[in-house]
Amino acid sequence: MTDLKLPSAMAELRPALGKIVTQSQEQLPYFAALLSSKHGLQISVDNREERVVERPPSAGTVLSAFDGRTIYERAVSGFDPGEVQRAARELVQGKSFEPYAPAAESEPQRSGDFTISMQIDPAELSIREKLDRCRELHRRTKSRDPRIVNVQVRYIEAGEHAVFASRHADLAQHLQRLNLFLVVIVAGEDGQVKYDWRSKSGEAGWEILEFTDEEIQHLVDSAVALLGADRIEPGEYQVITAPGVSGIICHESFGHGVETDMFLKQRARAAHFIDRSVGSPLVNIFDDPSQPGGFGSYFFDDEGRLAAPTQIVEEGLFRRGITDLYSATALKIPRSANGRRQDYSRKAYARMSNTYFGAGTSSLDEMLAQVDDGIYLDKWSSGMEDPQGWGIQVTCHYGHEIRGGKITNRLFAPIGISGYVPDVLQSVTAVGREWRLEAGNCGKGHKEVVPVASGGPHLLLKARLG
Amino acid sequence: MLNKIVEALNGRSDLSGWTVRHLRSRGAQVYAVPGQIESQRLVNVEQYRIDVLCQTSDPEGKPAVGSGDITVLPGEDIKAAVEKAVLTAGLVANPVHTLPAPAPLPDVPLLDADLQKDPSAVTKDMMEHIQAAASKNRGIHLTAAECFGEIHTTHLINSRGIDAEQDATQIHVEFVLHGRRGENDVETFTEMDRRRVADFRLQDEIEQRTRHTLDLFETAAPPSWQGPVVLRNEVLATFIAGDNLQGSVLQTLGSAGSKYAKISPWEIGKSIFRSDVKGDPLTVWANRCMPFGTASNRFDEEGLPAQRVELIHGNELAAFAANQCYADYLNLPATGAFGGVELPPGQTAASALLAEPYVEIIQFSWFNPDTITGDFATEIRLGYLVQNGKRKPFRGGQLVGNYLDALADVRWSAETGFFGSYLGPHTARFNDLKIVA
User: pLDDT tens across B180-237, in order?
Assistant: First the structure.
C-alpha cells in the first residue's frame, strides 16, 4: 500500500471510521466521514527582511448525513476518536430523516490510497535549504536594474491529506502544491511604483520551481516597461490572449457558469443552453481534476468521487456542467468529481479543478499574421464570474500592441476585458497549439477559496477592452 | 493546555520573546435553495497559535532577530511544536524588534448576546426572516441564501506580560434575488458581514434589492460617460474599505509594512495625492474601536490595544498603521492592525450630491483596484444614468480610472452610515470618472 504519511492522529482514527459509518448508516440512508488536514509553509525574502511562517493549518473531521433533501453536517477540530464518535451520535440522534432519493446513478465501490509523484519532494528538503534557494533567486534578481526598489520571493508549500469513508468508499490521498512567486517592484523618477511578477507552480516537487536567467531578465524588463505604459483607448479590438488569459476567460465563463449548484439556484444561464451553441466550433472546454501536475488536481473530491475529466463545451456546443453531490441529486444528473470544500469548516460546493480550453492547431506566429492592429494580452490579474448575466470581467495586468502582425514594445496597463461571454467565444477564429495551465485560487463569490488551475492555448478573438 | 504551552515557552532560555493565542470558534451555518434547506452545519474549531522570537545574527555578525510560528491542536505534542518553531526562528536574521507590552485595553462592543447563546437559533431565525421578506415581492424570488453565525474567543498571552481575552461574534449573510420574464433571467447577489443581527436591516435591504432586480429587466446598453459618478451605501463601503478577498488601496499604501517594503510612496506630512485636490479634503481614520465593526477588536494578533488612528488628515498622511515590528523598524508608534475605515461627515447634504446629470453605480462585478497603483477597470453589473428627470438603468461597461485620482475629486455627504468595516458618509459624488461602454 502507498505510504501517504498521514498525520498520526488521522492515521489512528482511520481504522475506526468503518464502524462509525456502519453504525450511523443504520439510521440514515447516506452517511460519510471526511478527515481533512491542510498545512504548509510560506517563505518570503525581499530586500529588507525574511520570513518563514507556517501557513494557517486546518485539521478536522466532517460527518455528513444526507436524506435526499438536506445535508446535515457536524465539523469538529482534529481527529480524536471519542470526539468524532460523539459528534456522529449527536448528528443522527433525535432526527427523523426523509427517505433518501438516490442520485441518478449508483455509487460504485471504490478504495485506494493515492499520492502525487515528485522528483524533489519538499519534505526531503530542510527549511534552511528552501530558504537558501529563495535567497539565491532573490540574489540573482535584485541588482539587474537601478530602478528596482524591491524584489520579493515568495515560496508557498501547501500539503493536504484527506481520508474519505462511506458505505461505498475507503479512500485516502496526499497532495502537495508548490508555488514560487518572483515579484519585481520598480520606481520611476516621479515616484510612481509599478511591479510585475512571474510564478512557477503545480502539484509536484521542487523540480518545477527553477527560474532561468532569461525568465528573470524578461520579468525585470517588463516591470520597468510598465513605468511607461499607457491606458488603452476603450473599444473593440482584435485580441490574442496568452494561455493564462485564455484560462481566466474560460474559468470565469464556462467554469463558474457551469457549476451545477448554480443551476439549482437558478443562477446559471448555461442551464438553458445544454447542447446549444455557446461558441465557435473551434472552442472546446474541459475540467479535469486528474490532470497530472495541475494545481487544481486531486485523486478524489471531498465527497469521495474519483477524479475524471469532464468535457463542458464540445466544438462550441455546451454539453454538461460540473457537480457536487447535492446538486447532482436534486437535478437528477450524472455526477462529476467536483464537490470541494475550502476546508473542513465549510460545506462542499460544485467547484472547478483544472479548467481549460482544448488546444488547437495554430502557431502563435500564424495567429499574429492575422492581426494588423490589435492587442496581445500577456497577463491576467483577476476575474469575476457572472453565471446569470454571462458578462465578463477580467482584468489584465498588461497587454502589448500588435501592429502589422508583430508584437511591439508599446504597453497598455491595466486592461479590462468586458463583454458578453457567447459573443466573445463565438468570435474565436484561431486556437493555438501551445498549451499550458496556470495556478490560481478561486472563490465562490467572495469566499470559499480553493486551489485551481486554468489555462489553454493562445486564442484569436474579438473583445471590448478598456 | 494553554498553561502547559506557556510553561514550555517560559522554560526555554533561547527565546527573546513569545506569544501564544488560544483560538476557539463555534458556529452554525444554514444554506437554502429554492423551496428547501440545502444544508445545516455545526462547526467547532480550536487551536493554539504560537509565535517565538530568537536572537540571531546577520551575515555581518550584528544582532538580529528571527521569528517562527506553529499551530498546535488540542492533545498534540507541545514540546515538539515549540522546538520546530524555534528551529525555524533560528534560520532568519531580521533587524531587531520587540513585542508589545501590556497596556489598557478599550472596551469595544463586539458581541451579539443572542448569537453567543445559541448560534443555531439565530441563523435559523435570520434565514426565515430573509425567506419571509423575499416572499413579499411579486415577480422576484429568493433562489439561494446562506447565513453563518460564529462566536470567536481569543486568549492571548505573551512573554512581556500581556494576558488578554476577547469574545466576538460574526454573522455572514448572502442571498440571491432572481426574476424571470420569458427567457430573460435577472438576478442580484448580496452579501453582508456584521457582528450583530441588529445591524443588518434585512427588510430594507431586500426591498431595495428587489427594486434593483426588477430594474435589471429594463436595462439599456451602458453609456459612454465622463463626469459625475455617485456611489452609495454598501458599494461605497466596498470602494473605501475593500472586501473579504482584497483589502483597499488605503490599507495597502497606509501600512508601515508597505512603506518598509518600499511599495508605498506615501510620506508622513505630505499629500497622498499625485495631483491637485479639487474636491473635499480627505481625512481617514484606521479604526479598530468602531462599535460592532467587523474589523474591530479589543486587541490584535500581537496583543496591541485597539486604537482609532488618524491616518490621513486634510489630504496629508498623518500616520502609518504599524504593527510592532514595522513600528520598531521605522521608528513609528505601534498602532496595530488596520481595522475598519472611518471618514468624517462631509459638508453637503446627500440630496445635493444628486444634482443631474450623473451616473449611479449600484453593483460592480468586483471592485478590485490594483492596491499598489490604484488603477482600476471594473465591470458594472447595474448602474443608472440620471438626467432630465429620468433614471435609466444600464448594465455592462467598465468604470475606468485611478483610485487616488478619484478620491482627489469627490464630495462627501453630511449624512453617515455604518456598513460593517466602514463608517462615514453614505453618499459620495466623484466628479470626474469615466465609464467605457
Answer: 998 889 999 999 999 999 999 999 999 999 999 999 999 999 999 999 999 999 999 9
Contacts of B197 by beta carbon, 8 Å cutoff, 6+ apart: B112, B114, B115, B122, B126, B171
Domain range annotation of chain A: 8-228, 235-465
| DSSP string for B205-224 | HHHHHHHHHHHGGG-BPPPP
Residue closest to B127 by CA, chosen among B144, B150, B152: B144
Taking the C-alpha atoms of residue A332 and residue A326, their distance in angstroms, rounded to an integer, is 10
State how far Cα A195 lies from the chain centre. 24
For chain B, what percent of residues have pLDDT higher than 70? Answer: 100
Percent of chain A at pLDDT exceeding 70: 97
CATH number of the domain encompassing residue B45? 3.30.2290.10
Residue type, B331: N
Domain that holds residue B69: 2-217
Q: Say if residue B60 is in the same domain as residue B13.
A: yes
Q: Which residues sit opposite B391 in a β-bridge? A: B386
Q: How many domains does chain B have?
A: 2
pLDDT of residue A30: 86
Residue A396 sits at φ, ψ, to 5 deg, of -100, 135
Task: Give the nearest chain B residue to A393 (CA atoms).
Answer: B379
Cβ-in-10-Å burial (0-12, 13-18, 19+) of A245 comes to buried
Tell me what pLDDT residue A101 has: 53
Do B196 and B233 lie in a common domain? no
Interchain pair B143, A266: CB under 8 A = yes
Nearest-CA neighbor of A452 among A253, A294, A291, A269? A294
Specify whether B329 is located in the same domain as B262: yes
Answer whether B402's CB lies under 8 Å from B408's CB: no
**Residue A392: pLDDT band with limits 50, 70, 90:** confident
Query: Residue A103 pLDDT > 70, yes or no?
Result: no
Does one domain contain both B89 and B207? Answer: yes
Let me know whether B167 and B203 are in one domain. Answer: yes
Strand residues in A71-168 grouped as ranges (E): 71-77, 110-115, 148-166
Residues 6+ apart with CB under 8 A from B261: A46, A47, A48, A150, A152, A185
Name beta bridge partners: B348: B413
Please answer yes or no on whether B365 and A384 come within 8 Å at the CB atom: yes
Which of A364-368, B60-64, B228-232, B334-338 has the lowest average pLDDT? B60-64
Best probe of the A interface among B1, B19, B31, B45, by most A CBs < 10 A, is B45
ipTM: 0.89
Q: Within this chain, do residues B84 and B118 fall inside the same structural domain, yes or no?
A: yes
What's the CA gap between B319 and B266, in Å, rounded? 10
Average pLDDT, chain A: 93
Determine the distance in angstroms separating the CA of A172 from the nearest CA of chain B, rounded to an integer: 21
Q: Are strands A235-241 and A193-202 parallel, antiparallel or unpaired?
A: unpaired
pLDDT at A1 over 70: no
Tell me which of B200, B217, B234 is where a domain ends: B217
Whether B250 and B155 share a structural domain? no
What tens digit of pLDDT does each residue of A340-386 get? 999 999 999 999 999 999 999 999 999 999 999 999 999 999 888 78
Identify the CA nearest to A10 among candidates A75, A78, A63. A78
Residue type, B289: C
3-state secondary structure of A272: helix
Asked if B243 has any chain A CB less than 8 Å from its own CB, the reply is: yes
Q: Which CATH number fits domain A8-228: 3.40.50.2300, 2.60.40.10, 3.30.2290.10, 3.10.105.10?
A: 3.30.2290.10
Chain B, 247 to 306: residues with Cβ < 8 Å from chain A are 260-265, 274
User: Are B200 and B334 in a shared domain?
Assistant: no
